[in-house]
Amino acid sequence: MGRAIGTVALFGATCVALGFLVLPIVAIFVHTEPGTLLSQLSNPAVVDALVVSLEASAIAQLLVVGFGTPTAYLLASRRFPGRSLVITLVELPLVLPPAVAGLGLLVAFGRNGLLGSTLDVFGVSIPFTQTAVVLAVTFVASPLFVRQAIAAFEAVDPNLVAASRTLGAGSARTFFRVVLPLARAGLAAGFALALARGLGEFGATIMFAGSLQGVTQTLPLAIYAEFDRNFDATLAMGALLVVISAALLLTLKLSAAWQASRQSSPSRSGLLGWS
Amino acid sequence: MHPHIRMALAAALVAAVVVSATLGVPAVAAGGGSQSRITVFGASSLTDVLPRIDHAPRYSFGGSNMLAAQIRHGAPADVFASANMALPRQLAAQGLCSPPVAFTRNRLVLIVPRANPAGIRRVGDLRRPGTKLVVAGDGVPVGSYTRKALQNVGLSSVLANVVSNETNVREVLAKVALGEADAGFVYSTDAKTVSGKVRVLALPARARADVRYGICLTTDGQASRAAQAFVRKVLGTAGQAKLAAAGFLPLSRG
Question: A224: which chain B residues are within 8 Å (Cβ-Cβ)?
């Protein structure tokens, strides 16, 4: 009897949780007719926001991967004093409120900022530009990639690396031929997570980059700007972001499943256990 | 198999009860709460002055257009104090609030950072290429007044120098006060709140837009004595004195 009640409670709680999490997403799609949503996708404000978002995310992801991969590899493969501190610092933007990130970027790269005032002397002004959007997105998204990449590099069997070196491969060759292929799935997971986080960036962008259609107005900013003017457009952009995010998550799951099926060792799948 | 199905049905029933309870309770609580403490939705430019007139209500400040949209989507406001007459009139036409009453006026001004990096002395200087001008978005009252004022003096072309359309007047103020923008359009009362950080440039008389604030009671507010008392307070002598002290203009012109 007690067990039955326990099971009922378990099911009940799950139903509530599931309903609560799914309802808002369903509501975005059913609030207006699908035809209206689709026609809003050609609204210039929506198209401009999509282009700004995709461009900024593409550049940001290049920076994230370009600087994040070596950083993660160094932190994963070397032990040095202060390593934990460095990892904590790299992860900090992950738990920082986006508004604080925006504030920090302003007082660092703003015209009167720590570094920005020097840049201003050379005629470089970052706020209100596409560069500002890219910096905001990179700042909030990169820790997700780096964290995942550290875990992926740490999970690479050191014996394989040692074997590669013993067989005469240099460190660069070992990295590209052994380490990188083995860490690939983990890196891809980090990439997808960072991309999803970057596409959703709002707080830091609106504070640091402002909001101008076709220049700095990303999809989340356009949702906010159009909220009182064209509610159908905000729903269309919301639906678009749901679809993109879901596609990223699905890619992540599929690549994880694919990787797990390819590798016999069950311990490997643990490397994808992102939380 | 049978007990499993029964269990699943029971679970669904429990879930339905829990969901309806969690959905129902807060709605009832919110409805009952309107008796004790009212909620006032106020234009950003009223952020400092309204709590000085009455500190009792719960306040939500923002762009009047955003607040109006929230009211349209069922936000629990009792009073709406807008930086224009048009938005509360629209809500009144939709049956969402009482016909608005004008309660104060304001003046649109051009502000530049204290250091004035772009060397702007008058509104015409905004035409210089590369000037970083920050304004409020088109639907925001101050954004509409800005566009109207520029049009009045034949300077709509300076809108090409806009680097950001902010969502409320205080965002414009912040970006100029921080020195990130070269210039921005705000109300004279906003400029006063950061007087050490910005310089105020008056606009030529023919550029001035008639900035008139309207207040109305929402459907909830019309049933609330506290909400009615709040509106009376704002319109009364003490409320008008507080508005005047903050730099707002009296209703009667001249």
Answer: 167
